[in-house]
Amino acid sequence: MIKMSLSIKLVEEKSRLRKEPEWMREKRIEAWKTFESLPMPQWRYFEERSKLRYAEEWKYTSQYFSELNLSKFIPSIEFEELKEPSKESQEKRARSGFLMQKNSKVVNITLRDDLRDKGVIFTSLKIALIEYPELVKEYFMKLVPSSENKFIALHGALWDGGAFLYVPENVELNLPLQSSFHVTSNKAFFNHTLIIAEPNSSITYFEDYRSKYQAQALHTEVVEVYLKKGAKMNFFTIQDWSSKVYNFSVRRSLLNDDSAINSIIGSFGGKLSRTDLDVLLKGSNTRSGNYVLFFGREDQHLDINTNALHEAKNTNSQTMVKGGLKENATSVYRGKIKIDREAIQSDANLSERVLLLSDKAHSYAVPSLEIENNEVKAGHGIAISQVDDEQLFYLMSRGLKRIDAEKLIVQGFFEPIIQLMPVNDLRLKFQNIVRDRIER
Predict the structure, then answer these.
(1) What pairs with residue 303 in β-bridges?
(2) What integer is the mean pLDDT of 99-104?
């Protein structure tokens, strides 16, 4: 393990030790230069001649960056020997494959033999870069370029982990693939996951992020999903970082003709956690379901952003966000639907509901519709409220204590999204973590 200061030398040494292709080295250096040139995201920027420029997407969140010193989070360079995925039988675990990463190092990869024989690739992105460089080059950071903001630029320069999944045409994964990421130290971690689903393939993918280490850490994640014609994907995520992690996550999916994605994200951990869930409905007859659960407590700040961009005719996006806040927790939700001129006969809807379980908890909502043609259906709805007194009274009249009645109401509040999951084991995971958060 090599430790260096946060600098371009660290970027170059990381690439050199891994014997990365020259194009990746150049991409890292370009991202580093972008990182150095960009300011920290903030709501108001002072430009030349004292003009103000506003960045609404960071309102309510940039104020927390005063405590965030990026230079103190120094990633280590861990050399990872290439290894073949384990041939351990997965049937008894009811999954197609499994990848585990601790800090920046992958410690276990498994994939079912029958899927490997069909051409499925499931490995770490670091290994994929060496074994399938042209495939990685074609897609890497094309959906999420380093120029978007300072955090993504730093990610592009120092990415150091994550999964790579390639599913050939007409291959269906009937059981879930799982990636599990664990943090056990106070450093910076940059996971990048790349998923390519060829025409008429089908995937169920589950990822979880966990940390019990009670020291400050920085995690940035970029997930890029490419669904070719007719491809289908279920994508589920549980984020349960410790209370001192700064988390910045971007998931962006590109849908071609007749493809569909169903995404459910549970955002529960972190001191400050920002989640961007973007879907680009590029092809006609594409469908997306975007669902987010969050639960904040103590002094957590949870920032959720969803974007559905309709670029072709007969596209459909459904976005639902549900959250609970107690103690001093805060949340902000920005939901955007954009329907282009060519996207006739499209249907889009977004909604957010938040339960405030404390007088000191606060939630902000900023919905947005941009519609450029008249042959569409689109709508949004926002509701921020406390637990309904009539529901409490009803349950307490049946013998429940107030605290138990409140827990039951909150659990039921999240169930409509949890029940959308087609895999029973995953439903139980979400139910258990929601119950744990409520009872803490």
Answers:
(1) 274, 332
(2) 89
